[in-house]
Amino acid sequence: MKIQGLIQAAGSGTRLGLGSKAFVELGGRTLLEHAVELLLPEVDSLVIAVATPDIDRARALITHEHTHVIAGTQTRSGTTRRLMAEATAPWLLLHDVVHPFASSELVRTLLQQAMRSGAAAPGLVNTEFVYSSSGDLIHTPGEVLIGQKPVAFGRDAACAGYARLPKDGLDSDPSFLDILELGGVKAAFVPGSAVNIKITTPDDLMLAQALLSLKA
Predict the structure, then answer these.
(1) Which of 83, 150, 213, 215 is the most buried (most CB within 10 A)?
(2) CA distance 198 to 205
(3) CA-CA distance, 114 to 97, in Å (whole number)?
(4) What is the mean pLDDT of the chain?
(5) Which of 123, 62, 117 is nearest to 91 (CA)?
(6) Helix (H) or strand (E) holding 69
């Protein structure tokens, strides 16, 4: 069964302060290389979306014959829509370069679950008390899941979800799981991992470097 990987790598990295996220280095390799090396053994082909000025740089870095680099947009959801427009396989894996510690075992588990239920995502059980900015308690430990990447899903559901969005878009940046639900598929969650961190700020990168040193 054909499986295609879609990689979100168009983030500007403003909060990180090191330029485009795709080319931030971790352990001597860029975040883009980490993402490609994770997905390539599990998929038949890859589509990678980077910022328009970074297209030539990405193509020079990722030369595998079954990869295709396209221009993303300034928003995550806009980039995802462009990736979906290039997707052709019945089963897809959507990943983001800011999750460099996702594992091959997780990818396989997600694909297996998605082929049973239509879509699957990693969910990390929240272990903290969560408050609103005004100090009101929203959730206690164990009540909510923190969504992670990658997400495995059927192409038809995602296309159906995007087709039901307003033509002029939404006021906010929608969750991809919400898009799938619009398309008639509610994602099943598989156990996430606290190690599968998201690199957004300098502190996140410091933590990633520490984790990498422990693995060495």
Answers:
(1) 150
(2) 9
(3) 21
(4) 93
(5) 117
(6) strand 67-71
